[in-house]
Amino acid sequence: MKGNYDKAFENVVRLRVMSILMVNEEYDFNSFKEMLDVTDGNLASHLKNLEKQEYIQVSKSFVGRKPLTNYSATASGKEAFQAHLEFLENLIKENKS
Questions:
Q1: For residue 13, which of 2, 39, 46, 82 is within the disulfide window of CB 3.0 to 4.6 Å?
Q2: What is the 3-state secondary structure (H, E, C) of the chain?
């Protein structure tokens, strides 16, 4: 089957994070937290998982005195996510009667 099923996107939080990063150049931690309605620890865990896979990258800066952590999808992350979506689309087509 065309595409590639990727276990990194098995969890709905990671799937949503990648979806957001596919349409936004970058996104910050607090905005993710608000949009996804998850706890700090839960979100951090999923972001760390995607970072470990090298699907997202992190940049840290300060806005005034407040730290700001932004995330963006890497080229390999975008490619892996597209392949995952392609797999799911083909799976649906294959099972359509």
A1: 46
A2: CCCCCCHHHCCHHHHHHHHHHHHCCCEEHHHHHHHHCCCHHHHHHHHHHHHHCCCEEEEEEEECCEEEEEEEECHHHHHHHHHHHHHHHHHHHHHCC
